[in-house]
Amino acid sequence: MKLLINEDPIPLLPSLAMKVGLNAALFLQQLHYRLNISKNIRDGHKWVFNTYDDWMEEFPFWSLNTIKRITYDLEQKGYLISTSKHNKMKIDNTKWYRIDYEKLPFSYTPNEIFVDPKVDAPPPQHETTINSQLDAVQTHTGTKAYPTMGGPITKELKNKKNKTIVEKNLDVAHSVIEYLNDKTGKHFKAESAATRKFINGRIKEGYTQEDFIRVIDLKTKQWLNHREFNTFLRPSTLFNATNFENYSNELVVAKKPRRESYVPPVLDFSVGEK
Questions:
Q1: What is the 3-state secondary structure (H, E, C) of the chain?
Q2: pTM of the model
Q3: What are 254-272's pLDDT values in tens digits?
Q4: What tens digit of pLDDT does each residue of 183-206 get?
């Protein structure tokens, strides 16, 4: 397998990598691209919200600990600003990220920061190589020019429609887990990759948020006050593919009216006709 030059080159400025470090530069470059196309504006700034699992999809060559270390280091240096205050629900700890461009080694104007992807879309990656960007750093007059960051490091993982579906499923997961915690007094996290996998799997099978709520109601009524079964009030049991189907069918059976058995009348021939 060939691993060189068969893919689009990475549009990364070595000058930025020299200032903040290679890994930090890669992260900032990708975040900058995401910010350019982001529609999430809060407090007058564009934001990108991602879980660590989402960042691992964008940077599959990094471990979870590496990503945590990179973001923490960037936050400490003031280049990266993150918060969870913009989430709709308090239990949602998904972080929102933006770059503090004023703290970066280079200066940027608002037009360079907030590019309209429909009007000022970045050029194709094959046209934006490292060497061409380096050439742009020094003008013919010798005056230093501050280049803007180029296109994305990785290709788009999902289109806009799929992104909307992911966000919708995440909302369902938060609502379902919050309801389960309220009913059981437990503290499950909707951000758990395993929990999201179970819930997203059932959603793909056509189940709705109301189906999750009905199953939770059913099993908490049956198990909550029984110590031997209480431990099974957990996402891995309730939302497992086979279990969830069985529990949903329990609800269907429960809804069916019971047919009264026919009891024939008892005839007493010892009594005369009145």
A1: CCCCCCCCCCCCCHHHHHHHCHHHHHHHHHHHHHHHHCCCEECCEECEEECHHHHHHHCCCCCHHHHHHHHHHHHHHCCEEEECCCCCCCCCCCEEEEECHHHCCCCCCHHHHCCCCCCCCCCCHHHCCHHHHHHHHECCCCCECCCCCCCCCCCCCCCHHHHHHHHHHHHHHHHHHHHHHHHHCCCCCCCCHHHHHHHHHHHHCCCCHHHHHHHHHHHHHHHCCCHHHHCCCCHHHHCCHHHHHHHHHHHHHHHCCCCCCCCCCCCCCCCCCC
A2: 0.42
A3: 555 555 555 566 555 565 5
A4: 999 999 888 888 989 998 998 888
